[in-house]
Structure formats: structure tokens, C-alpha cells
Design a protein that fits this description.
18 helices; 392 residues; Rossmann fold
Amino acid sequence: MHLCVFQMKLLSRLWTVLFLLAVCICIIVYYMNSASMHTWIGMRQQIANVHGTVDQSTTRGGEIRDSNVPNAVSSPKTVKKGLLSDDASSLSPTQTEKSNNNSSRAKYGVKVNGKIHLIVYNRVPKCGSRTMVSLLKEQFTTTTGTWIMQNKISQRNGDLSDDKRLILTKGGILQLVQNTSSLPAVIHGHFRFMPIERSKHPVYISIIRDPLARMVSTYYFIRFGDGQIPDRHLKQLNARIRPEHFNMTFDECVLQELNACVSPGKVSTQISYFCGIHPNCSQPSEWSLEQAKKHINKEYLLVGIMEDFESTVMLLERLAPDLFHGLVAEFMNPTTDNTTTVTKSHKGPLPTKKVRAIMMTKLDLEYQLYNFVKNKLERLKNTLGINKLSQI
């Protein structure tokens, strides 16, 4: 009898211990699952923030918040006061929604009506920009050329880093934007894409060129000019070249792997012009290429190609008839001396097959951008029934 009572008490205590143990396990599992859920939600939010986008908004102190940039490393340079963002995503959600619903906002291939616009033409070097500027001057009474301001920056601050140059350039251009009191107007110059306040109704346009042809043209331009560049400016360009490299052909420059021909900054010029002023835009990468494509799609009315300049002019007039009315007629029958007739760039020997093969590899990302723009242009021409002027 006593044995049975003892066994029953033992079983009761055992069940109590097991019950308490089960309760503890349940509590531990509950908190672990809760923490995992919060972690999972946080990860999802981070993925949503960085998947194909960049948090380029700024703090009140003017610092870049670039922690969400893929493969980006936050360095002291990227967090100094004054380094501003380079994308319209810095607008608040409400502002972005309003701008997206604004019918006057330019978007690639979408017709823009009215004349109250600020045309922003960020000219890629050696891509027919002088001809385009000469056409625009005949259309607009207010044409601001920022290249004068940028030359002064280059002369006064030749020892500055690229980041500081970009800050100064952006500050100068935004000052020009603020000082533009009457619209329509044009701001043009050799600067990268940057957001312009929506109250100015910006219309972005640009032109690019076959990457290798552009590089070769630039190489000989900085040595011999084009018959139009002032002598003092040509001397400034010449001063950047080491005397022993001055008479080298482009082929010799490439085969000797000199920075003037093969450095990442030299081979990624067109991508950087559309990627923006973020520090990562200075180096060729899949990220900078995707940023360039994104800005072309969302911000530009049109990006033409120099090899099809005629169609580019026709498309501009078709897409923004109120702004560019008469542009085609001016191109066909210029009322003033057109730059195309007076610009005579020095033409060095064409690259050999060997050098072309080397450069096609180095320019792979640049050609991806070029073909992206070229295909968009062809589709737009087909949609609008645009043919070359010579075929009309």
C-alpha cells in the first residue's frame, strides 16, 4: 500500500516537471519565432529598398544616404556635408506621385505640350553637341551655356578631386536654374544628369555616339582641335598631355595601355553622363549602367545618336512641337553658319583590327548603353513613322 502511494506521488511530480519543461520550451520557441519574424520583415524591407534602386535622398545636413547602394562603401568622401543626391527619388512619396501625374513632365518618347519648360541638354563630348546647340539658339532667346562656368571651375580648381568637381558643377548649374526667370529656356553643357526642380518643368535631352568612334575623336581633338576651338583652350588641353605621348596614334596609346585610352574613367564617359553624380557613377559597372538606363527611361524626353542625327532632330520636333517647332527646317536650311560646315576635327588613322578587338572588350558596358539607346530610338521611329530627311 505504501509502495503504491509512493509511486503515485513520484508519477505526479514527474508529470509536473514535464509540464513545466513543456511550458518553458513553448515560451522559448515563441520568442524565437517572434524574433525571426522581425528579422525576416526587416530583411524584406531592405531587399525592397535595394533591389534595382538607390536611396539617394539627403539628410538635413546635405549628406548622401548611400547605405543601400549595391556594392557601395561609405567613405568619408561620401558623407561630407554638401555631397547631394543625384536622383529624383529624393522627392517625398507625395511629391513623386504628384510629379508622375503631371502631364507636363517629360518621359522618354512621350509627347510634351506647351512652351513653359526648361530644356536641360547635358552634352556628351564629341557627340554633335555644337550642331545641336547652334540649332537651339535659333529657337530660343534664352540659352544659357554652362560650359563657360565649367571651364572656370576646371581652371581654378585643377587639383580638386572628381567628387569636389561634381559638387561645384552641380552647385553652379542649380544656381543657373534658380536664376532662369523666364521659360522656355535652355541650359546646356558638359555635365552629368542631375535632378532639376519640377517647378521648372524640365525636359532632358541628349545625344550619344558609337563609343569607340567617340573615344578616337576625343583622343585627336585634345591634341589638334577641330578648327573652331580657340587657341588658348587648345593649349589648355595640350598641357594635360605628356610631351612624349603627344604624337602617339590612338593604336599606340592602347597597345601601351596608357591611362588616356584604357583607364575606367575614360572608357565609361557616356554611362557616367546618364548615371548621375553619385560617386559610383564614375566607374563602369552593372550598377552604373542600370542607373543610366533608368534615368533615360524616366527622365529624358529623348536621347538620340550622332550616327542618326537627322532622325534625332525630327523626333525632337515631333515629341515637343511647341518647343522645337521649326527645328527640322533650320537643320535643312540653316539661317546662320552651321557648325557642321566649319568644324573640321583632325582625323587620325582608324584603329586596327587588333586595337578594335581590345577596345570592344573594354567598352562592353558602353556598347550595351549605346545599343539600348539605339534600339529605343528605332522603336520610336517606327511608332511615329519617322524616316531620315534624305529619304523624304
